[in-house]
């Protein structure tokens, strides 16, 4: 096996290991993702838009929206320009939740980078940026 193949295997193992990655993967598939999307967008979104952005089924999005609405973190209303559509808006409670979540994530990242030390942290960031730049540039077309 080549050293690149070994690195790919190691990276895959790292990405699938541990509670941190489980939490990261779950956050990208549910309530936090929806709240973050609405928070960053700053305008209402349709459930189908959320479904597309999340790459998830409309049924899964609908279930998450029901839960978020019960918690008072989103509000759904009929689009006044086209009554066949529903618009989803984040509430102040939802904004507070996502701000707190983002702050916790940032604090944890600072803790990890601090523990790595400045030299290793700078190298990690440099290599990560290079990795994602190359990955983006060389990404195969998903529709081929």
* Class computed from helices, strands and strand pairing: mainly alpha
Overall pLDDT level: 84
Strand content: 5-15%
**Regions with pLDDT < 50 over 5+ consecutive residues?**
none
Helix content: over 70%
Distance between the termini: 28 Å
Strand numbers in spatial order across the main sheet: 1-2
- What is the count of helical runs? 7
Oligomeric status of the shown chains? single chain
What would you call the shape? extended
Gyration radius (Cα, Å) is 19 Å
- Please write the string of helix (H) and strand (E) elements: HHHHHEEHH
Q: Based on DSSP secondary structure assignment, what is the total number of beta strands? A: 2
Major sheet: 2 strands, antiparallel
How is this structure best described in words?
With 144 residues, the chain is mainly alpha-helical. The protein is 71% helix and 7% strand. The protein has helices spanning 3-16, 18-27, 31-41, 47-54, 58-70, 92-116, 118-138; strands spanning 74-78, 86-90. It has a two-stranded antiparallel sheet. Strand 1 (74-78) and strand 2 form a beta hairpin. Helix 3 packs across helix 6 (92-116) and helix 4 (47-54) crosses helix 5. The relative contact order is 0.08.
């Amino acid at each position: 096996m080549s050293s690149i193949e070994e690195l790919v295997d190691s990276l895959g193992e790292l990405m699938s290991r541990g509670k941190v990655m489980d939490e990261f993967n779950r956050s990208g598939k549910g309530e936090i993702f929806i709240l973050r999307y609405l928070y960053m967008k700053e305008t209402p979104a349709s459930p189908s838009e959320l479904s597309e952005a999340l790459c998830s089924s409309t049924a899964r999005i609908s279930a998450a929206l029901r839960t978020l609405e019960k918690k008072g973190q989103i509000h759904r209303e009929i689009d006044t320009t086209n009554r066949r559509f529903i618009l989803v808006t984040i509430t102040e409670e939802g904004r507070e939740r996502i701000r707190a979540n983002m702050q916790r994530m940032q604090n944890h990242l600072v803790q990890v980078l601090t523990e790595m030390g400045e030299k290793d942290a700078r190298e990690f960031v440099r290599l990560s940026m290079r990795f994602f730049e190359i990955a983006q540039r060389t990404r195969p077309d998903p529709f081929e």
